[in-house]
Amino acid sequence: MFPGAYRHLRLMALDPYDLALSKLERNSQKDRDDVRFLARSVPLDPEVLKRRYATELRWQLGRPEREDLTLRLWSEIILEDKEGNMDTITT
After folding, report:
1. Residue 45 · residue 17 · CB < 8 Å
2. Comparing C-alpha atoms, which of 19, 18, 20 is closest to residue 75?
3. Alpha-carbon gap, residue 8 to 6, rounded angstroms
4. What are the phi and psi torsion angles at 15 (to 5°)?
5. From the CB of residue 81, how many other CB atoms can be counted at a distance below 10 Å?
6. pLDDT in tens, 36-85
7. Rounded CA gap, 58 and 21, in Å?
8. CA angle, residues 71, 77, 78, in degrees to nearest 5
9. Who contacts 3 (Cβ-Cβ below 8 Å, separation ≥6)?
10. Predicted pLDDT at 87
């Protein structure tokens, strides 16, 4: 629309793993549904999610043990969903 008018403006967006990790502390049903959606549409790799959590987020949390449990739950949800989709595809 206005070429060159915004040359100092940089737009950035969260990648799917950043988005999932941003929802970890709250862990409401909406957050779990969002992570499930990301897992289906991206798809999310639970090992990458765990690695990113360990290196980028865990050290910043006030109660990391609680978030460890949440991440474990989310990893199970992702894996169960993946296995359920594989059953649907093969039958």
Report:
1. no
2. 20
3. 5
4. -80, 170
5. 17
6. 999 999 989 999 999 999 999 999 999 999 999 999 999 999 998 888 77
7. 10
8. 90
9. none
10. 57
